[in-house]
Structure formats: C-alpha cells, structure tokens
Amino acid sequence: MEKPANDSLPCIAGIGLRAPHYCEVLEKLPKLGWIEVHNENFFGGGSPLRTLLKVREHYPVSLHGVGMGLASTAPLDQAHLSALYRLCEAVQPASVSEHLCWNSVPDIANNGSMVINDLLPFPYTHEALSHVANRIEQVQEKLGRRLLVENLSSYLSFTCSEMSEGEFLSELSQLTGCAILFDVNNLYVNARNLGVDAKAFIKSLPADAVAEYHLAGHSIRDGCLVDTHSTQVCAEVWALYEFALQQIGPRPTLIEWDSDIPALAMLQSEAGKAQQRLEEYHACAK
C-alpha cells in the first residue's frame, strides 16, 4: 500500500518534553533537536495546548499516543480519534505515533467500553494482523497522515502466536503503509524477560519502514525488567542501538524519561550520547 503523506523529523536526537520542563524550555530555548509530547495531555486544549504551540514555534514536534488501543476489540474510540485530529491540525506535527497494544474491551451492559490504563500485549496471529491493520487504516484515513507504530515491552508471551513481533510489524507496515517506531529499550526488556533474540528481531525489521528510535531506562523488580522510563539508558541498550544503526541506519532518536524526571540538563546529556552515535555512524559511512 502507498504510504500516506507525512512530514518528517530531522535525523538527530531529541527528548520527550514533560510538564516539569515546560517553563525552562520556553524561557531558555535550549539546544534541542526536536521534542515529543504525549497526545492525551493536550486534548483538553487550554494552557497546555497554548504552551505546546509556543514550543512548536521553536522545535519540531512529534505527537506520541498512549491511549488509542490499536489492538483492542472494542470499537475504535471516535472521540479520541477526533481529538487527535484536532490536535494534529493545531500543531502540525512532524510525526504521529501510537503503541501496538490493546487497552479496552466492549462493555455491552453499558453500551460502551471498559478502558484499562495499561499497554497490554496480544498474540501475533493472522486474525490480529487483519484487525489491527483495519484500525490503523481508519486512523491514517482520518488524520491524512502516516502513523508510526511502536513495538511493545511485554511481561508474557502467547503460545498461540503465529509469527514473531518483528514479522507482525513487517506485515503490518506492508498492509497499511504505516511506519515503525522502534523502541530499543522495549526490545531489551523483552530479551531479558522473555528470551527474545534481540539481534534477530532487529534483522527482521524492514529498514525502510523504520522511521524513528526510542531510547529509555528501566527498573528491575524481583528480577524482572520493568519499562518505567525512570533512569538513564543502560550500556546494553546503547549497544543494541549501535547494532540497529548498523543494520537499519540512522533515524530520528528520542530519549524518553517519564518518571523520576531529572533536570533538563540530564535529558540533554542523554540526547547528546545518542547524537554522538548518530554522528559516528555518518562518519564511518563516508
């Protein structure tokens, strides 16, 4: 399928912009490659949206969703989709992305949906592929934009899966024209928790469909890695990122930090590490 129209981010490192840093960013206008925000924080308009529009005057902006539930069996939330459309029209983002997960089920008794505040995994079957592809096409048609779909950190696997996550993403991209947002930390979490072959996953991704990288930190609880986005990127994730650069190539790269949020300077430092690796790749490629 032909890819829907979409602007693009610069192929440099950026940061996730969260509320504690809004004022500092607008007052100091630090050197940032680009910024990403969570869609749902701006659906209500008002002061948050006005702030984002001011930020947009100085930096490329990516909109990243956590609540659409692309794999949910409940009908696609049209109010949510309309709110995202209005936000895109206001911000004119360089990219729009969403997680490959489910978060709701039909609530027949109340003629609605029961929503779960989590990013939940699902089996990678051909039935699920058709279902998710249909929903992505609805989203892209409404927005008039290509959607980036992010691989998920998971804490269980399904014996009924008919393909790997990498194969599922590849097929999904071919069917819908969507792009892949490759979260390297999510892959590392799955490699440690579930035994996923990280390098095989990276090799299975169609390079031309990968549009962006995410990098983040995680926590360890009772021996299980939890994707908390609460620490610096670990050495093993940096190594996987370097492997991805060799296999897939350089792409816009984001540092995510969503809890225990540090000073802005720390985020800039982490983004600088990603930028250094992007520049080293370009230097070696010449």
Structural description of this entry:
This protein has 9 helices and 12 strands. With 286 residues, the chain is an alpha/beta fold. It has one domain: TIM Barrel. The strands form 3 sheets. It has an 8-stranded parallel barrel, surrounded by 5 helices. A two-stranded antiparallel ribbon has the order 5-6. The chain has a two-stranded antiparallel sheet with strand order 10-11. Helix 7 runs parallel beside helix 8. It is globular and about 50 Å long. The chain starts with 12 loop residues before the first strand and ends with a helix.
What's the layout of helices and strands?
Blueprint: E1 13-16, H1 22-28, E2 35-38, H2 46-56, E3 61-65, H3 78-91, E4 95-99, E5 102-107, E6 112-120, H4 126-143, E7 147-150, H5 165-176, E8 179-183, H6 184-194, H7 198-204, E9 210-215, E10 219-221, E11 224-226, H8 235-247, E12 253-255, H9 264-285
Parallel strand pairs: 1-2, 1-12, 2-3, 3-4, 4-7, 7-8, 8-9, 9-12
Antiparallel strand pairs: 5-6, 10-11
The CATH superfamily is identified as Divalent-metal-dependent TIM barrel enzymes
Name of the CATH class: Alpha Beta
The proportion of residues forming helix, as a percent range, comes to 40-55%
Q: What is the CATH-assigned architecture?
A: Alpha-Beta Barrel
How many H/I helical runs? 9
In one word, what is the shape? globular
CATH topology: TIM Barrel
Helix and strand content put the structural class at alpha/beta
Q: Compute the average pLDDT.
A: 92
